[in-house]
Write a structure and sequence with these properties.
Blueprint lengths: L2 E3 L4 E10 L2 E6 L3 E6 L13 E7 L2 E7 H4 L12 E7 L2 E7 L1 E9 L12 H6 E7 L2 E6 L7 H6 L1
């Protein structure tokens, strides 16, 4: 994680975003850029949650429908949706989300463990929860968004 050492605490900077009514966040150091939605070219035989690829300054960028990857209904992108270009397992991957909402600065003590009652799929992606005011934000482990063989195929 992006770490900033203050007097006694280590803080982390995260980018928060929305998918439907839920909020998630990722380490800001894994985010390369945030861009508007661009129609993707479909790839045959790709996993259902891979919407396709786009041309990002001459490079092929796979686009993952983040809602579908988490088992939520598919996103129908509009001009208001954004793509968070991230670095996952040594490759750039775009995450299609509804909107970016905040940049958060938190310390380790703010991160609560994922409840034991959560499904294995949830535990695979969510490395912790951040209760902030009346909100509950899931801290996502990007390393598990794509499985290694899927990253290599994209």
């Amino acid at each position: 994680m992006s770490e900033v050492k203050n007097a006694d605490a280590i803080t982390h900077e995260l980018i928060a975003f929305r998918v439907g009514a839920q909020e998630f966040c990722v380490n800001i150091m894994a985010v390369c850029e945030i861009r508007g939605w661009t129609e993707a070219t479909v790839l045959p035989q790709a996993p259902r949650y891979v919407r396709g690829v786009i041309n990002l300054r001459g490079a092929v960028l796979p686009i993952v429908d983040f809602a579908m990857r988490l088992g939520l209904p598919s996103t129908e992108p509009t001009a208001r949706h954004v793509v968070i270009v991230t670095q996952i397992n040594h490759q750039q991957v775009g995450l299609l989300v509804d909107a970016v909402s905040d940049i958060l600065t938190i310390n380790d003590e703010s991160i609560q463990p994922t409840p034991d009652i959560a499904s294995e799929l949830v535990k695979e992606f969510v490395q912790g929860l951040l209760p902030i005011d009346s909100r509950m934000i899931s801290l996502i482990s990007l390393a598990n968004v794509l499985q290694t063989e899927e990253v290599l195929a994209a």
